[in-house]
Amino acid sequence: MTIEKCINAFAVDDVIFEEGSTGRELFVVLEGEVEIAKMNGASKTSITKLGKGEFFGEMAVIDGSVRSATAIASAPNTRVMRINHARFVYLVSQQPAFALMVMDALSKRLRASNAVTYRAAQS
């Protein structure tokens, strides 16, 4: 498969994937910006915004679970590269730096989530 087939372009407010959907792909932002949000009917709570070089969708590609949030293009001409499960496993096994980068990002995201949960519990 050529790399061009792994790249998708999105306009502002295009949904890349929805919370609760299945998917075995991780995405890397090549251009633009992606908002990760929790949806509750018409209400949206933004979790974070990711830019060039950042990735999302890693939990589903690692454990095969459903998507935990919705990913939405939040800038014009947002382009993302899809990395399927097989390619992800290959990269992790052949490129220790890639595996460490994913673990570092997961750790930072978990710490941020823990901080939000702790603050909410203290309120």
TrEMBL record:
InterPro entries: cNMP-bd_CS, cNMP-bd_dom, cNMP-bd_dom_sf, Env_Response_Regulators, RmlC-like_jellyroll. It comes from the Bacteria. Residues 10-92 form the Cyclic nucleotide-binding domain. Pfam families: cNMP_binding. CDD domains: CAP_ED. PANTHER family: CRP FAMILY TRANSCRIPTIONAL REGULATORY PROTEIN, HTH-TYPE TRANSCRIPTIONAL REGULATOR ARCR. This is Cyclic nucleotide-binding domain-containing protein. It comes from Bradyrhizobium campsiandrae.
